[in-house]
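Re: Re: ligand-bound prediction request (bumping)

Still looking for help on this. To restate: I need the protein modeled with magnesium ion bound, output as structure tokens. Inputs repeated here so nobody has to scroll up.
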Amino acid sequence: MRTSGPTSGSGSPRTSTGRCERLSDIWSVNDHLEDILAAVRPLEPIELQLLDAHGCVLAEDVTVPIALPPFDNSSMDGYAVRSADLRGCDHSAPARLVVTGEVVAGTGDPPVVGPGQSVRIMTGGPVPQGADAIVPVEWTDGGSGHGPAETMAPGSVAYGQVQVFRAPEPGQYIRPRGSDIAAGSVALTAGTLIGAPQVGLLAGIGRAFVRVRPRPRVVVVSTGSELVRPGDELGPGRIYDSNSFTLSAAAKEAGAVVYRVSAVADDARALRTVLEDQLIRADLIVTSGGVSVGAHDVVKEALSNLGRTPGHVDFRRVAMQPGKPQGFGVLGEARIPLLALPGNPVSSYVSFEVFVRPALRRMSGLPNPFRPGVRATLEGDGPRSSPPGKRQFLRGVHDSYRRTVRPVGGSGSHLTGALAHADALIVVPEHTTEITPGDELDVVLLDTPV
Ligand code: AMP
Ligand code: MG
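Reply:
Sorry for the wait, this slipped through. Here it is.
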């Protein structure tokens, strides 16, 4: 790995106001990200039904109102017994017990087990009073004088007997009341992301509703007069709008509710109207395209000077590749955060990963909005140069078993084919000017398995 002296660009000098000093007029990735994260807040909690809360972040500590399991129950199909009755039994000297009834999962009033007695019991059935262990059916002769489970009335008496070949320990195959979770304990704390097991736990303790941060609503707008909706006919000089789809999918993967708006032509006034119209349903707005220095960079034109629209959007150069031009600010009375991403498809996706995703995760209420990073050894052929002073995000394929990463495609920000075959971003630090196979680098793992 070759470096270029001091860590140029890895942290821009700051003024007393906390703002990045604009000597070089270039922001470090960290400063731009910090600026964004400082401006977004976790959304106000709401009460949601359990399945609607799936994928949201808990906004309350959940206390368990009942013990789990709520009663001692059997973990086996077998016989509820008094273990003292069976001491010393084996195949040569089986114990004989009278079977006085049957308990299934759901039985409300199990019969009492007296000395020399047993009750046939199914998994999940409440352990009858008097019994202190379960004998699995495999340790018995299967019983005689009683029929299959479904034909027997719970609570019926003395309709059979069973031979037992092996004695259980006291308490064996009984799941004691509260052994999963004790009543009154905190099952889940605020800040927990609700996945399937958490939904299950909440349901298991009887919660129908839960207080969570809602999913952020994201409006995605792509700009460019060249853009055609996929499915429509492509005229000369036109291209399909892919960014609004990539960004919508990425926002969805980040846990957002997404509203994708049809591509807006390069017309500043039209764009401003669209954005103003969208404010009503947005917690965050993402635009793509029109942020560099071209003659038709309308996002910059429309948002640098907002006219009578409240808000302020800054356009910056950020020390990264791809994704140098970035816009960030707030729009409307409600000060809705807006991130204006560059139009090149790889730039816009990488910018989403680096800036928008953490912002959305912060709004969702996650204590840590970042993806887990891993270190991996670079594979591939030959050294690759990296621009000095810029953090480079290369696309790669990660091998979690070998802990290696292999770049796919070049560094061109139009290379969507390679992006679609990547499952990781390889992070080349600002001061590194060349990377060589064998180098250890930070890798960000993406959602896409390839
Ligand atoms: P811009 O940032 O608007 O100058 O766009 C930079 C490059 O990205 C140009 O080649 C655009 O045609 C392309 N581009 C911009 N927006 C999109 C989009 N939504 N989908 C695909 N390519 C785009
Ligand atoms: Mg454009």
